[in-house]
Amino acid sequence: MKLLAIETSCDETAAAVVEDGRNVLSSVIASQVEEHKLYGGVVPEIASRMHVQAIVPVVKNALKEANCSLKDINAIAVTHAPGLIGALLVGVNFAKGLSMSTGLPLIPVHHLRAHIAANYITHRQLEPPFLCLVVSGGHSHIIAVQSYTKFNIIGKTRDDAAGEVMDKAARALGLPYPGGANMDKISKGGNKNAYRLPRPKVSGSPYDFSFSGLKTSVINTIHNAKQKGEDIDIADMGASFINAVVECLTDNLQKAAKDLNIGKIALAGGVCANSVLRERCEKIFDKNLLYMPQIELCGDNAAMVGAQGFYEFISGNIADLSLNAKASLPVDKIN
User: Of 47, 103, 277, 335, which one is least surrounded by beta carbons within 10 A?
Assistant: First the structure.
């Protein structure tokens, strides 16, 4: 079964053709990073307009690279939630138009479910159940993946997401967008113990995260140093900050895995491309039971949408033309 998948939840216009949920026949991404660098972050209105410009050629290229036409496609999968509402609407409406004109089934895909499904492409032997840490610019969750379409939220951030605080701390250090990725690169030679930073906990909720205090601590340290005319070692601060974030993430994940007696662990989302996070997980979890997507599948892409779309389709999750985009939607909900 071949799915045409479409992803426009943030600042990547992406399309892919995926066969049977695991075999990627094509994956095309039009990135907006260079445009948003001018503003230090994603500008929603600009993102939406750029999706409109890119979506037709991206879809055409995905079909061409897969050596097929719409006549060879069995269904259309599209990210409908969560994300930037204007960006999502571009993809959803384009997919609805294709569905209406071709008669192909329309499959709504949750963005976080798609990130989790990136693991099915990298690790074809992986099957639920397992415990997954999903970390990105907008989300930080510990999710029990009970089946391909059944999810249970074990823990989540109470305020900022891990990727969000990485980007904001990087900006405070003067690093260019995308901040988290650039901080990861520049901090490789840094001393992770150079700066003392807090590891916030959520009282009464051992699996939940809180990153706003950590973010404030870094920004205040940087500002205080500037006011005193002191220099901040960017590599050391970056290493110290990333280490603090990663410890918060992995400590909670490790506790949840132990308490729930789950040995099979997966990572998902853009932040799981972070080298420190990947290395720490390899140290504390059984390597034979640890699953991480290949780096190019960590960020937003349509291949992961096609992977999850396959399982949504066979479970009967098919939408009609009333499908709408949603800026927020829990991972355990369909619509």
Answer: 103
Strands 151-156 and 140-145, how do they pair? antiparallel
Give the sign of the dihedral formed by CA 287, CA 291, CA 293, CA 298.
Answer: negative
Tell me how far CA of residue 154 lies from CA of 129, 159, 255, 283, 305, in angstroms.
14, 16, 11, 23, 23
Q: Is the dihedral of CA 172, 292, 335, 159 positive or negative?
A: negative
User: At 253, which CATH number?
Assistant: 3.30.420.40
What pLDDT shows up at residue 145? 98
Nearest partner of 304 among 72, 89, 109, 87, judged by Cα: 109
Tell me the pairing of strands 106-110 and 130-135: unpaired
* The model's pTM: 0.96
H-type helices in the chain, by residue range?
33-37, 44-65, 85-102, 111-122, 162-172, 179-186, 212-228, 234-260, 275-284, 303-314
Backbone angles phi, psi at 53, to 5 degrees: -70, -35
Residue 182 near residue 133, CB atoms below 8 Å? no
| Structure confidence by residue, pLDDT tens digits, 232-247 | 999 999 999 999 999 9
Which structural domain range is residue 85 located in? 2-116+297-314
CB-based contact 21:120 (threshold 8 Å): yes
Same domain, 136 and 273: yes
Instruction: Encode pLDDT of 62-76 as tens digits.
Output: 999 999 999 999 999
